[in-house]
């Protein structure tokens, strides 16, 4: 069983020594007496180009290929609260509106993350909008990324809706067929400016459809158990 994570959440230098060993599913409220299933993580696979960008002099690559796969030791049992989400596989998207979820900061600059799982409705914008806001993207927004935010042209807002620190790795989803309530994962929360939802800022999300071949090769391909050209796998310590 595989799951998504965003790669920059993990310190590359400490991955082998302090690898993530478990994963919680269906958690809505973080508490000390959590009853949600705790699943054992066998390994996680990162995109090799991201690893190289964070461990070599290629500092201009640190903002790209921000994606990883998590392999679980057992299958996830689906319930009415635990449901699978499909991956969006094409460049064409039926709607510019998405839903992002996470336990990240909900009051900018205060540093407090949420114990309650929160969601926000966001809109996709031209990549040029994010190029203006994020000067740290040395090569600008690539085809492998999405520019998503809340501010609509002509709307005068001081603080808008946005993802924030602590939301990284969370899904950016859309409902393609409302009657079936099947969610499609379009993106993964990756990076954004310092001020969350302030002014006309927008955030960067890893585009899932761009990495479909890489995902399928590592999850279902004949070489799924091996290291390929664009992957690096770390096993969790026993």
From TrEMBL:
Keywords: Disulfide bond, Glycoprotein, Immunity, Innate immunity, Secreted, Signal. The keyword Signal applies. The keyword Nucleus does not apply. One of its GO terms (cellular component) is extracellular region. It is found in: Secreted. GO terms for biological process: innate immune response; proteolysis. Residues 8-220 form the Peptidase S1 domain. Pfam families: Trypsin (PF00089). GO terms for molecular function: serine-type endopeptidase activity. Belongs to the peptidase S1 family. CLIP subfamily. This is AGAP012946-PA-like protein.
């Amino acid at each position: 069983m595989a799951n998504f994570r965003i790669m920059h959440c993990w310190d590359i230098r400490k991955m082998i020594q302090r690898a993530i060993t478990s994963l919680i599913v269906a958690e809505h409220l973080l508490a000390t007496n959590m009853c949600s299933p705790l699943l054992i993580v066998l390994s996680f696979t990162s995109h090799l180009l991201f690893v190289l960008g964070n461990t070599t002099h290629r500092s201009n690559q640190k903002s790209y290929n921000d994606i990883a796969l998590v392999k679980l030791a057992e299958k996830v049992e689906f319930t009415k609260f635990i449901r699978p989400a499909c991956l969006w596989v094409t460049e064409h998207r039926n709607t510019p509106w998405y839903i992002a979820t996470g336990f990240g900061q909900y009051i900018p600059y205060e540093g407090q993350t949420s114990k309650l799982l929160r969601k926000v409705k966001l809109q996709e914008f031209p990549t040029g909008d994010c190029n203006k806001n994020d000067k740290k993207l040395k090569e600008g927004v690539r085809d492998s990324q999405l520019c998503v935010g809340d501010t609509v042209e002509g709307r005068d807002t001081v603080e808008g809706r946005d993802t924030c620190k602590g939301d990284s790795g969370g899904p950016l989803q859309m409902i393609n067929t409302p009657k079936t309530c099947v969610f499609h994962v379009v993106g993964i929360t990756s990076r954004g400016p310092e001020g969350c939802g302030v002014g006309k800022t927008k955030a960067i999300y890893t585009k899932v459809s761009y990495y479909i071949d890489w995902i399928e090769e590592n999850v279902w391909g004949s070489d799924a158990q091996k290291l390929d050209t664009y992957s690096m796998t770390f096993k969790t310590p026993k």
